[in-house]
Amino acid sequence: MNDQIKQIPTFEDALAARERIEPYIHRTPVLTSRFINELTGAELFFKCENFQKAGAFKVRGACNAVFGLSEAQARIGVATHSSGNHALSLSYAAGRRGIPVTVVMPHTAPRAKKEAVLGYGGTIVECEPSTSSREAVFAEVVAQSGADFVHPYNDPRVIAGQATCSMELQEQVPDLDAVIAPIGGGGMISGTCLTLSNMAPEVAIYAAEPLNADDAARSFRAGHIIADDAPDTVADGLKVPLKELTWHFVRNHVSDILTASEDEIVDAMKLIWKRMKIVMEPSSAVPLATILKNPELFRGKRVGVIVTGGNVDLDALPWT
Question: Strand 256-260 to strand 204-210: parallel, antiparallel, or no bridges (unpaired)?
């Protein structure tokens, strides 16, 4: 594991990341829906990372890590473990730099995400769908290859890269009252905290989590990390636990962590597909599900909603 994983990224790291990754990512659009605004009583601004390169925000952190490597380390390549979006994002970034990449993925990961990893030139090693299994299998991969470990979220380079999303949002929609994003391991929320605590400390930051995988919410209430090994939720990108770096940002900057049931997540996903005509994955629907569930918290406010990804298996939609 890289020594730098223990270091808390700074706002200067985030600014450097923005310059480093600019040639390799999209500045994603912000969309609105009058219908959803009327339904929630809030002004919602959807930052659409489902339109990002590789279909997810995680390409920001992956590109920052890959293009920050020395030439010597780049030749050896990179590796990670991920249920999907970080795996395909790291594969995209490594492909752009022309270096090897190996990803450990649970055999239950969505087919669309596995196909994307392979399409970008990545090598997949499968594991069981639990945090303990993926970390054990991954340790063997790194021991054999010597590849640089780019953690899906507990890596300062990754968090600094994710921070560039909320930088753009602040420029696109000034004077927000709050920003809400999904939380699994906490990479996007940590990046959001890193940006807003420096650029707009008055903006409230909320995290949204599946009730079936609510270890971050329970950690937030308990004051220490509580890690579930293999939670079961339709939001496949939010099954992983917080780690020490992301916990630092959550406990210091997040206002609250809100949860939604499986049915509420699917209903929110269907609503956005139907009304906004955009493809998003279940994990991305969790913030809207929690807004609909807690209208008094957001009513009358200007709220940035980070849509984290759109890599969904069209042959296995959660309402079919």
Answer: parallel
Longest dimension (CA), the chain: 55
Are residues 304 and 42 in contact, defined by beta-carbon separation less than 8 angstroms? no
**Residue the block writes with tokens 């995988």:** 213
What's the confidence (pLDDT) of residue 164?
Answer: 98
Using CA atoms of 292, 218, 139, 4 in order, give the dihedral in degrees to the nearest 10.
90
Can you tell me the mean pLDDT for 243-263?
97
Say if residue 31 is exposed, middle or buried (CB neighbours under 10 Å; 0-12, 13-18, 19+).
middle
Instruction: Read off the tokens for 253.
Output: 């900057």
Average pLDDT over residues 231-252: 93
Please, what are the domains in the chain?
Answer: 3-56+155-307 (3.40.50.1100), 59-149 (3.40.50.1100)
- Does 228 have pLDDT greater than 90? no
**Distance, C-alpha 106 to centroid of its chain:** 17
144 C-beta neighbours (distance < 10 Å), count:
10
In whole angstroms, give the CA distance from residue 112 to residue 115.
Answer: 5
Report the alpha-carbon distance of residue 160 to residue 156 in Å, rounded: 6
DSSP-derived 3-state class of residue 208 = strand
Please give the helix or strand (H or E) that residue 216 lies within, else none. helix 215-222
How far is the C-alpha of 144 from the C-alpha of 100, rounded, in Å? 14
Taking a C-beta distance cutoff of 8 angstroms, is the pair 194, 64 a contact? no
Contact 159, 246 (CB under 8 A): yes
